Amino acid sequence: MKNDLNNIEKVDIGKFQNDLISWFSEEQRELPWRQDQDPYKVWVSEIMLQQTRVDTVIPYFNRFIEWFPTIETLANANEDKVLKAWEGLGYYSRVRNLHSAVKEVNEKYNGQVPNSPKEIADLKGVGPYTAGAILSIAYGIPEPAVDGNVMRVLSRILLIWEDIAKASSRKVFEKAVRQLISHDNPSAFNQALMELGALICTPTSPSCLLCPVREHCQAFHEGVQTELPIKTKKNSQRAVQLAAVILKNEHGKILIHKRPQSGLLANLWEFPNIEIQEPLLAGRKQITELFRNTYNMNINLEKSIGQIEHIFSHLIWNITVYSGVISQEFQSGEEWKFVTFDEMNQYAFPVSYQKMLKLYKEHRS
What we know:
- By secondary structure, the protein is an alpha+beta fold.
- The protein has 2 domains: 222 residues, Endonuclease III, domain 1; 127 residues, Nucleoside Triphosphate Pyrophosphohydrolase.
- It contains 14 helices and 7 strands.
- The strands form 2 sheets. A 4-stranded mixed β-sheet has the order 4-1-6-5, with helices on both faces.
- Helix 1 crosses helix 11, helix 2 packs across helix 3 and helix 2 runs antiparallel to helix 8.
- The N and C termini lie far apart (63 Å).
């Protein structure tokens, strides 16, 4: 098993480029960010597509561009509105970094996304893949854009046995792309590699008989396409038990809380919640005391209205959801607000808390 790029010498690079790009021109999906090569739209789409399926991203992309059609409009938008536009996509640090970087582009580069590898890579949240995607797709610069799809495709084409879960392996694949990429049409070449990985050269059961570059694929010729890529599994997720409560005041308004400015789900809104160690043993009295100790909040729990499970890449939330009333005057402010159901539409909530609100409404009806 070779871990270098000697196998690249076996590829007829010109024919490989032609076969790949010809297939892409015929078979590419019609996606909203492909309607033009606007670097801002390419940037937004690539940030959204990180760890998220294309079908999920499409409506979010359309709404985001409708709300913020230009770099200037996004740069001047307040964070609450930006988070609301992203609500439900998850990995919220992505959009906070995008917002910060767009402000820099608006001020430093007069609203034009830079076309220099160094300048674009210096923007917050723009890693090697995103930089390469913008430079190649929008500006026609032959830079590699190596994501999981591309590593999977090239591990099979070139018989690369590197562990793609290791950060160091990316350099091997970037070097391969630099040798293979079309300098005449780097935009179509990079998009075609990504599209091939998404549609044909899939993680399991690749559709080799439909592959436009099958004759170039060394894994196919050796019958090992299902053994590649090599990818070690991540560490297991940590389970966290939470109790959350949807609290009404005497006017029927609901209490919401803004999460801290850093960390998981930063600056999003939520219902008051606390971590509990033994969910089966934590009765209403214990939970009420925890809220008093944590938030100096006197509450009356009415009932448990259900369970919510929410999965992150590194942990799993198991949330017991309660309804209740707050039995004291509680001062609202920047971090705590009493809002009506209609007013909640102005605030960005993580998916888990949207599920809680749905539960609550179902139990009221």
